[in-house]
Design brief:
It is built from 7 helices and no strands. Helix 2 packs across helix 3 and helix 4 packs antiparallel against helix 5. It has about 140 residues and is an all-alpha fold.
């Protein structure tokens, strides 16, 4: 088990910025702050999902939440907000492309196109909304 000082935890300021981007589900779920901290820990430490410390929650919950969320539009907006605040290392740790590149993909190639497509899509939606609001 890793030393408690080596674990990564989102601080209150980081969480106040990040939490506004997370989806509101109808079903109650485990603490998102712990889950995101666990995802960042796994990414930064390079450990396997199954080796994620239990303090973050179940390793399967952490992995499944990352897998479900990674390509949704709020994830890109959250990463951009983190980078804007200067939390580049944390944003890089949550970037699905970066995680895919450092992890073993068992012979599969990572899908590099999703990131640019998502950013273009987000930019188009943002521009469309700004255009509508200015009318």
């Amino acid at each position: 088990m890793p030393d408690l000082r080596e674990l990564f935890w989102l601080n209150d300021i980081q969480w106040s910025v990040i939490s506004t981007y997370l989806p509101a589900d109808k079903q109650p779920r485990l603490d998102d702050r712990h889950t995101l901290s666990g995802i960042i820990y796994v990414s930064l430490s390079g450990c396997r999902w199954t080796d994620c410390p239990k303090l973050y929650g179940s390793h399967s919950t952490i992995y499944q939440r990352f897998r479900r969320w990674r390509h949704r539009p709020f994830w890109t907006r959250m990463l951009l907000a983190m980078a804007k605040e200067g939390w580049h290392e944390e944003a890089r740790a949550l970037d699905p492309l970066a995680i895919t590149l450092v992890r073993s993909t068992r012979g599969r190639k990572p899908d590099r196109a999703w990131r640019h497509a998502r950013i273009r899509s987000l930019a188009n939606r943002t521009n469309d909304k700004a255009h509508i609001n200015n009318k």
